Structures are given as structure tokens and as C-alpha cells.
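Issue 218. Parser rejects a valid record. Input:
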Amino acid sequence: MPQAPQPRSLMETFEAEFEENIAPRLQARDHERLAFKRKMVRNWLLVFAAGAAVAIAFFFVSRDVDSVFFALPAGAATYWFLIARPLKQLTESVKREIFIPLCDALGFTYHLFPDGSNAQYFSELGLVGSFNRSQFEDEVSGRYQGLAFSLVDAHLKDKDDKNTRTVFHGLLAAFEVNKGFQGRTVVLRDGGLIGNFLGGIGKNLDRVNLEDPRFERAYEVYASDQIEARYLLTPAFMDRLIALEQRLGSKVRLAFDRNSLLMSVELNRDAFNIGNLDAPLADRNRLRAIVADLSMIFEVVDTLRLNAETKL
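Output the parser choked on:
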């Protein structure tokens, strides 16, 4: 397995792999994109025609204006089969053409549809809200600087009898750490003391008060071992965590537990979104933006020094 590059060379690796492997494969398939766009014009007309035909049929049968709303399911079904489903299939195929060779070059593994089996663990730690609906895509895993990691795009929702709300949309990252944690330390970005206790964080962990007023204003720390929490959350670490969140431009929550550091990065978007199909498939700028997001996550290892065996 090839040695994974440093974060500073991740973009360089992408550029080389794009020219040699990714771009030729995408260019060879660009005719599919053009054919798809032409077909979509016809399919949209069919969607409207199907909806209108069903609405007219219901109206003449029942003579009730409200009956035209029965056309909505027919229109939605037609939209799914003629537009949404083909677009989804093409997008998934293109993603494989992009990320499988890129991850191979990095020594990583890519899965389009992971199981996301550890998401409940993130919820238990308070890194994401409580959820009963989940969707996972685009998992990248492997070893980085000798540390095992997993990174997955997650969309988590909570559904009750009346409403469905998104509780988290972003990246869930888990890194193996060369440190053995005796207890559990959780660093939360938002929610307030009351909100975090209502979320269950304060039930088994104690609030940790730190001396850095800037960090105290931005984060709330809970731990089962106050001494270990202060050992981990050194002034240098707190400075690096604040700087990391500013670079990501997103809310970051993390937890030290067992021999792992788990992190949620709230993006409110798909991290691996390849965009629409108006531009050629081999659009370097569009793909470069995805790699830039990926690079920022791998900077966590260097920024937080996860591979160091000394304290943070």
C-alpha cells in the first residue's frame, strides 16, 4: 500500500492523478452527460404532460376542482423515474470514477454507501443530536501518518408524528490516537449549558472549567476525569482547536474516548457534492474544491498532533 501523503501534498496528488487517470476516464464518458441533458428536456415535458393528463382525467370524472391534486403523486412518480432516478445513477457512477482512483493513489479506500454504524456512538457522545433517520454516503478510510481513520458524509434526521428535522448534516471523522485515555472528555461548540444537559451530556460527565476565557466563551467541556481533561486541553491545544474551526468555517465538536478522537464537522451540505451536470465531467475546478475540503479534515492530524505520544 502506498504511503499516504502529508496534507500539504494532497492537492498535488490530486492534480497528478487527475491528469493521468481521472480526467481521461471522465472525458470518455462526457457524452453520457450531454445525452442526459438532452433527454432531460424531453423528460420534463413528459412529467408535466403526465401530471396534466391525470389532473384532467380526475376533474372530468369527479367534477371536483380539488381532485386535480390527485395528480401530484402521478407527477412525483413520473419525475422520479424520468429525472431524479437517472440523475442519481449518473451521479453515483461519476463519483466512483473520481474518488476510487483518487483514494487508491492516496492509499485510502472509498465506499459510496457505507453503513455508518458508528453514528450512534457520536450521538451518545453529544457530537450530533438524537436521530432516528440516517443517510450515509462517501466514506474515505485507511491509515494516515500511521493512524487508522474513517471519514463519512452523514445526514441525520429526527422524525416524529408531525415533523422531520435535520439534526446534523456534515462529516463524522474518527481517528485512532497514540494515547490511552482513562476517561471520556467531550468538547462541545454550541447548545449552552442547559441545552447540553438536556441532550444528555451532563448526566454522566462533569463540567470542566478552564482558565482560557476565549475558549470558555466558545466551547463547553465535560469529562469523567477532570485531571485528564486538563491534561489534554492545554493552552496550545485550545489555540489550535479555535484556529482549526476558523479555517473550516464550521461548527466542530469532538470527544476523546478510549483510544480514539471523534469529531463532527457541521457543514449543512454534502461534502462530496460534484455539482450539476452543466459543466464537463472533467471540470478540474469543481473537483479541486472537494479535495480542498478533504484536505482540511486531514489537517486535524497535524493541527491536533494526534500521532504524537506526548501530551497535546
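Fixed in the parser; the record now loads. Residues 71-106 form the longest helix (36 residues).
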